[in-house]
């Protein structure tokens, strides 16, 4: 196991633990940059989809993993970001380079607006309130047909950045690089947040509101900030999703997407950036894996491949149940354990990461 | 002028009078202890000073100004720090991060330059870290710096909580039962720390404590409470021998015995 | 006159929501877990009854298959707690919510794989019959739904407040460890509660399927029932029913008097407003944490 000797406070403040870790991440970034040269168009599309989900996942992760507020309504902010981005381009004629960040700002503003009345709500009640917002947004999109196209939906225009045309089908590699840039910026912002006072204030609100307050943290405002940052990032992901899909309507951002997003970050591992990516890999690649295995099984019994509605989400649900039961820290938790096993070999003990069971004591006083 | 003045404060929960017309003041630079049986209203007084509850009557002044129009999170900025009876630490964070949250009132950056992590934010972070390291040295927490709270033993958690309150650099420190659940040696440490907090750091301490050894060892003045009413004010010795205080702890004749838990 | 029919059909719908909400509240009251799959329990209960009753499947007599379905769902609930949820002891509420959401996905798939994805209706003796009071025509199915729901709520209310097991269930919810020390078999109590919730869901499913049709995604109705539970006040049995009735009544009236599209919106708008202004519902039972 490598031990890092810290010689200044900066060792704890820097982005990377040491130069070795920095080198690993730079290598990963380099690989990501040349990926369009290595993959065919179909696989590149899948990876792009995965990265967009990862951005959305990081958005929700800031809220759930960092500030401890559960949201079942983030599809609403995906939708707001997506519709804002397209409408700003189509109706106001703004270029993508302006409409895209504006879409994020609008989604962030909407998140703050939602956070103000719901600041008093906790846990499951907040989840329900956000769920209601997601359903309402879905319905509002249908009702506001003149603007949103209702159930027919809208078509995304081709992105044009200073004469450079970016289209998911015509120039998939450019679209991939655009998404990658958003991903890198989001990861940077997320990391900065974690090492800054605001990130610690989020953790404080998550773990104990009453003592966060005693430390001088303005709890409602911190929650609203968490909502704003989270929904802004989610809005950006929504805008990218729109461009990825080409055509979208209210169904694109149904309540199921909200739920899937939350389940995704739980599978990945709550509270870590890695978790958002691991979760996104599962969500984006699972349908392909299922399709492949179905063809395989079909070929085995000679039945051919037949469609089974709901199979994707059922498998997804089953995986999630197994994770919650046996690895509540998600894929990232398992990853950390495996890494520790090799680092400490042969001294790893089974109970090293064992968590203390706590007995439930109600907060209801009736 | 006193640092903290509790002026004729009353608080009722439904029909129960938790605090009944209590008045006292804490002078700058002293250690002031609140003692009394369970349910006497000691912690409620703490929660009143931290603005978790609103008094139905009376005024609370800090540094001459009423704090009743302030929000709970503004107390830290005024210079009032506190600990909790049942330890309220940030479980999923390290000791270092917990202490750094205590620096929140000194935060000067806004979220935009924090998301960009500008050089200014880095400079601030170094400064906060420096202040926190002083607390770590003071409380001997070096070994636990990067440990998560969730895995720490009870005694260490109590110390971390005190450290987090000190990181605020308060003028008034509210300690809610700093020695409850601690061993004799750990309690001794707390006594030394409280002494040093008063003399070296110049911080005024208001504490609730059941352990009369600790109270007599560190406090300049003691106020005994029972059933929400103030019974006696004076030195630890005077209060322990006060007839009303003896009466409040029914069933035990020896005044020294009964207050010691 | 048609306002009365609107009220009755709204009430009948509301009672189904109320019954599902009752399942939520039962589990929440006793275990502080939130079962997001309660709607899917209802769907499963309905499909089991369909499988037992309908001629295309087993063709058993209706009055035999209903208790059988209720029993099967009870056992299902019991086993679910025994095998899955017992392991969640001491984990966060949200983890349980996510687990049950995932469970809902799985149940929906299983039901679809067994009974297909087309809508089916239950061949029940109360379906399609009418009751006439003077000039008023009411569906027998709708009246039956209302009567059964009211009876069930009363029984459960007395069960929780009067019987030993009911009070033990309440105690287990207040403080698991203390209840355990007092000799209450907390784990078994939890399993029994899940069994009870399964049974109630089966009854809701039978009622739902006999006044309309059922398909595997009918479980999504659970979300609306969930809204009802919160509107009424989570943790209160009469509140669950009240919330269900409110949601049931709001829908037809909103689509009648505002516009068709708004009937979907109103329950959730109401839910959101209730959460903002009266976070713990109309019949609140929650207080703030003590420091």
Automatic annotation (TrEMBL), chain A:
Keyword Cell membrane in annotation: yes
Lipid bilayer topology: Multi-pass membrane protein
Pfam families: BPD_transp_2
CC annotations in GO: plasma membrane
Primary subcellular site in the record, as a coarse category: membrane
Location(s) in or outside the cell: Cell membrane
Transmembrane listed as a keyword: yes
Keywords per UniProt: Cell membrane, Membrane, Transmembrane, Transmembrane helix
Example GO molecular function: branched-chain amino acid transmembrane transporter activity
Membrane-spanning intervals of the chain: 22-44, 51-72, 92-116, 123-144, 175-193, 224-246, 314-332
Protein name according to UniProt: Amino acid/amide ABC transporter membrane protein 2, HAAT family (TC 3.A.1.4.-)
Protein source organism: Neomesorhizobium albiziae
UniProtKB/TrEMBL annotation, chain B:
Lineage top rank: taxon: Bacteria
One GO MF term attached to the UniProt entry: ATP binding
Entry GO terms, CC: plasma membrane
Assigned keywords, A-Z: ATP-binding, Nucleotide-binding, Transport
Classification via Pfam families: ABC_tran, BCA_ABC_TP_C
Domain ABC transporter per the UniProt entry, residue ranges: 4-252
InterPro entries for the chain: AAA+_ATPase, ABC_AA/LPS_Transport, ABC_transporter-like_ATP-bd, BCA_ABC_TP_C, P-loop_NTPase
This protein's record includes keyword ATP-binding: yes
CDD domains given in the database record: ABC_Mj1267_LivG_branched (cd03219)
Keyword Nuclease (UniProt): no
Database matches in PROSITE patterns: ABC_TRANSPORTER_2 (PS50893)
Protein name: Amino acid/amide ABC transporter ATP-binding protein 1, HAAT family (TC 3.A.1.4.-)
The organism of origin for this protein: Neomesorhizobium albiziae
Phylogenetic classification of the source organism: Bacteria, Pseudomonadati, Pseudomonadota, Alphaproteobacteria, Hyphomicrobiales
TrEMBL record, chain C:
Source taxon at top rank: Bacteria
GO MF annotation list: transmembrane transporter activity
GO CC aspect terms: plasma membrane
Keyword line: Amino-acid transport, Cell membrane, Membrane, Transmembrane, Transmembrane helix, Transport
Transmembrane segments annotated in the record for this chain: 6-28, 40-58, 64-84, 96-116, 136-160, 192-214, 226-250, 257-277
Location, primary (coarse class): membrane
InterPro entries from the UniProt entry: ABC_transp_permease, BCAA_transport_permease
PANTHER family reported in the protein's UniProt record: ABC TRANSPORTER PERMEASE PROTEIN, BRANCHED-CHAIN AMINO ACID TRANSPORT SYSTEM PERMEASE PROTEIN LIVH
Official protein name in the record: Amino acid/amide ABC transporter membrane protein 1, HAAT family
């Amino acid at each position: 196991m490598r031990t890092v000797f810290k010689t200044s406070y900066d060792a704890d403040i820097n982005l990377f633990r040491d130069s070795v870790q920095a080198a690993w991440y730079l290598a990963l970034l380099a690989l990501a940059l040349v990926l369009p040269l290595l993959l065919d168009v179909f696989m590149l599309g899948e990876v792009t989809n995965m990265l967009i989900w990862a951005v959305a996942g990081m958005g929700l992760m800031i809220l759930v993993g960092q500030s401890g507020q559960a949201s079942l309504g983030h599809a609403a902010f995906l939708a707001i970001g997506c519709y804002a981005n397209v409408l700003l381009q189509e109706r106001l004629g703004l270029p993508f380079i302006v409409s895209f960040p504006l879409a994020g700002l609008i989604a962030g503003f909407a998140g703050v607006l939602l956070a103000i009345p719901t600041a008093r709500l906790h846990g499951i009640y907040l989840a329900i309130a956000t769920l209601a917002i997601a359903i309402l947004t879905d319905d509002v999109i249908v009702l506001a047909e003149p603007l949103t196209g209702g159930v027919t939906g809208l078509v995304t225009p081709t992105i044009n950045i200073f004469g450079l045309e970016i289209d998911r089908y015509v120039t998939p590699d450019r679209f991939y690089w655009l998404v990658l840039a958003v991903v890198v910026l989001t990861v940077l912002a997320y990391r900065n947040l974690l090492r800054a006072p605001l990130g610690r204030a989020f953790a404080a609100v998550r773990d104990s509101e009453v003592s966060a307050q005693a430390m001088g943290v303005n709890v409602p405002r911190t929650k609203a900030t968490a909502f704003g940052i989270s929904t802004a990032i989610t809005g950006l992901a929504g805008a990218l999703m729109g461009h990825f899909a080409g055509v979208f309507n209210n169904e694109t951002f149904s309540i199921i997407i909200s739920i899937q997003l939350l389940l995704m970050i739980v599978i990945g591992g709550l509270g870590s950036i890695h978790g958002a990516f691991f979760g996104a890999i599962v969500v984006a690649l699972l349908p392909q894996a299922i399709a492949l295995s179905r063809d395989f099984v079909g070929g085995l019994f000679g039945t051919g491949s037949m469609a089974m509605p709901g199979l994707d989400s059922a498998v997804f649900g089953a995986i999630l149940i197994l994770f919650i039961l046996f690895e509540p820290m998600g894929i990232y938790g398992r990853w950390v354990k495996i890494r520790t096993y090799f680092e400490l070999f042969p001294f790893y003990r089974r109970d090293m990461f064992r968590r203390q069971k706590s007995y439930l004591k109600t907060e209801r006083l009736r | 002028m006193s640092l903290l003045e509790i002026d004729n404060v009353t608080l009722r929960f439904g029909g129960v009078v938790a605090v009944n017309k209590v008045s006292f003041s804490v002078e700058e630079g002293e250690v002031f202890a609140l003692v009394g049986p369970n349910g006497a209203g000691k912690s409620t007084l703490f929660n009143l000073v931290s603005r978790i509850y609103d008094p139905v009557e009376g005024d609370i002044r800090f540094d001459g100004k009423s704090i009743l129009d302030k929000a709970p999170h503004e107390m830290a900025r005024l210079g009032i720090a506190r600990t909790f009876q049942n330890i309220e630490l940030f479980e999923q964070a390290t000791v270092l991060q917990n202490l750094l949250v205590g620096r929140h009132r000194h935060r000067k950056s806004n979220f935009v330059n924090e998301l960009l992590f500008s050089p200014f934010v880095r400079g601030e972070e170094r400064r906060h870290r420096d202040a926190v390291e002083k607390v770590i040295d003071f409380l001997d927490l070096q070994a636990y710096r990067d440990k998560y709270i969730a895995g720490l033993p009870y005694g260490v958690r109590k110390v971390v909580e005190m450290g987090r309150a000190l990181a605020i650099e308060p003028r008034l420190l509210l300690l809610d039962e700093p020695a409850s659940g601690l061993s004799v040696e750990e309690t001794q440490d707390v006594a030394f720390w409280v002494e040093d907090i008063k003399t070296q750091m110049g911080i005024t301490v208001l504490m609730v404590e059941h352990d009369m050894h600790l109270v007599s060892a560190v406090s300049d003045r003691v106020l005994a409470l029972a059933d929400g009413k103030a019974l006696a004010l004076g030195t630890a010795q005077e209060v322990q021998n006060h007839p009303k205080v003896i009466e409040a702890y029914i069933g035990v004749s020896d005044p020294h015995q009964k207050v010691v838990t | 006159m048609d306002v009365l029919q609107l009220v009755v059909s709204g009430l009948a719908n509301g009672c189904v929501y109320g019954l599902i909400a009752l399942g939520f509240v039962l589990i929440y009251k006793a275990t502080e877990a939130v079962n997001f799959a309660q709607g899917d329990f209802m769907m499963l209960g309905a499909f089991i009854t369909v499988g037992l009753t309908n001629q295309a499947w087993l063709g058993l007599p209706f009055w035999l298959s209903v208790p059988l379905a209720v029993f099967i769902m009870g056992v299902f609930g019991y086993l679910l707690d025994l095998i899955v949820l017992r392991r969640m002891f001491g984990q966060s509420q949200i983890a349980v919510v996510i687990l049950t959401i995932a469970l809902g996905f799985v149940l929906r798939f299983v039901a679809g794989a067994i009974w297909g994805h087309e809508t089916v209706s239950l061949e029940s003796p109360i379906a399609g019959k009418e009751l006439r009071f003077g000039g008023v025509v009411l569906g027998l199915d709708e009246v039956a739904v209302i009567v059964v729901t009211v009876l069930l709520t009363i029984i459960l209310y007395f069960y929780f407040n009067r019987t030993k097991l009911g009070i033990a269930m309440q105690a287990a919810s207040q403080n698991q460890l203390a209840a355990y020390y007092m000799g209450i078999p907390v784990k078994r109590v939890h399993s029994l509660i899940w069994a009870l919730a399964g049974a109630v869901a089966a009854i809701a499913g039978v009622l739902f399927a006999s006044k309309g049709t059922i398909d595997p995604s009918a479980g999504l109705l659970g979300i609306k029932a969930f809204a009802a539970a919160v509107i009424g006040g989570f943790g209160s049995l009469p509140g669950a029913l009240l919330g269900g009735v409110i949601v049931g009544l709001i829908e037809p009236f909103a689509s009648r008097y505002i516009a068709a599209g708004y009937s979907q919106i109103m329950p959730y708008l109401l839910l959101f407003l209730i959460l903002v202004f009266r976070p713990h519902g109309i019949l609140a039972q929650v207080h703030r944490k003590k420091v």
